[in-house]
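Sync notes, pocket subgroup
Present: LS, DG
LS reminded everyone that the earlier model was apo-only. Rerun requested with flavin mononucleotide included. Inputs:
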Amino acid sequence: MEETKIITKLWGKIDPFSIESYLGRGGYRQLLNFLKNPKTKKETDKARHEIIEAVEKSDLRGRGGAGFSTGEKWKLALEESKKSKKPLYLVVNGNESQPGSFKDRFLLKKNPHLVLEGIILAAYALGSKQAFIYLNGNFKEEIAIMKQALEAAREHHFLENEFSGTKEKIKIKIFPGVAGYIYGEETALLNVLEGNLEGPESKPPFPFQKGYQEAPTVINNVETIANLVPLLEIGTAKYRSLGKGSASGTKLFSVSGSVKNPGVFEFPLGITLREIIYGTCGGMEKGKKLAFVQAGETGNFISGEKLDYPLVYGGGAGKISVGSGNILVVDKNVVLEDLILSWAQFYQRESCGKCTPCREGTYQLLKIAERLKNRNLLEGDFDNLEAILEVMEKTSLCPLGNFAIQPWREVINVYKKDFFLEKRREK
Ligand SMILES: Cc1cc2nc3c(=O)[nH]c(=O)nc-3n(C[C@H](O)[C@H](O)[C@H](O)COP(=O)(O)O)c2cc1C
Ligand code: SF4
């Protein structure tokens, strides 16, 4: 299946270091339209409302994983800001430390001004005077590109405007954050922005209620924000129709593993894994056979008929919840125990340690994974495994505790208890 390029339309066609290059391809047109039109306060409010309405009607869902409606989040934050008379902050999440995810980095590197134009438009529409671009501290190149892009946008006076006689200025700060998976979780991220490493907080309150400095805060993923310009450009109806079936718009996918052509691709939402793997990605590498695909919100193992299920937000029977769009293609040569061990190492390393079930649970899971790999599982390990998974599922403070157990649940579902028992007998 061919890619549908709306976010990636200019990839490879512009110089990411040159604002002129982006302007020359119609860049900042949506922002300029917005900035020059409103003359009176009424007109300004109308222009703001039109952007928010377009986002809502487009059914744009958060591309950071959870798929929450962006329009709804914006409206809820606006209501809170009005009620509490507190400023509204906008934070763009560019932490991207999920295993196998690299689409936000590509986006920032290949078309930084598309992301920036989206941020500026969102800030004006939401009436937010301060926005943050939170970038994983290890993303040195992306940080440098975004800083350069921001400076160029500032020089073009895109961050200030006069609306009906009143000067309005927005501040945008690029914040190189702490590297680590957990700092992509919105409440942990906000703590870093405020200067502490306290990790995630329990919700509610949600950031749109109490976020940065206790004020209502909209947190959106880089890709979510990058949708704003193309969405306004082509209009809500056209945008919605890009998705397959009832899905709306397109999605970036980070494809890795044993396919001929891995990379970042933009496809309509509602596409299937089979179309992605055997279409644009060129099928399996020579001599390799597909074992399963790890994809979706919780890293499910997908094979057989499920390869033909549509990737959408919401999931449900006969569908796969798309999450942040990571696709890891695993072939039959991969030793499952090695894969399990690498997940266990990852989650044990990334657990922030704030709550006991996840701190202790990820450690115990790592020990079991090591014994599984070394074929010296102890009697009772399987029963303990099930108990640990249950406790972590029910009592972890944040979703990372649940993410850490999902691969184990999949192994148990797919390969059953015998897989574990055999590892004892082989000892
Ligand atoms: C452990 C963990 C890591 C996360 N990492 C990211 C991340 O790197 N980028 C991101 O946009 N969202 C991440 N999220 C989701 C954010 O908490 C939040 O839902 C998202 O940034 C909201 O933006 P969206 O509505 O545009 O998707 C993570 C969530 C969890 C639980
Ligand atoms: S579930 Fe894990 S990552 Fe989340 S707060 Fe608890 S220890 Fe930290």
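DG: The domain at 336-425 is CATH 1.20.1440.230 (de novo design (two linked rop proteins)).
LS: The chain has three domains: 19-234, 244-319, 336-425.
Action: DG to write up.
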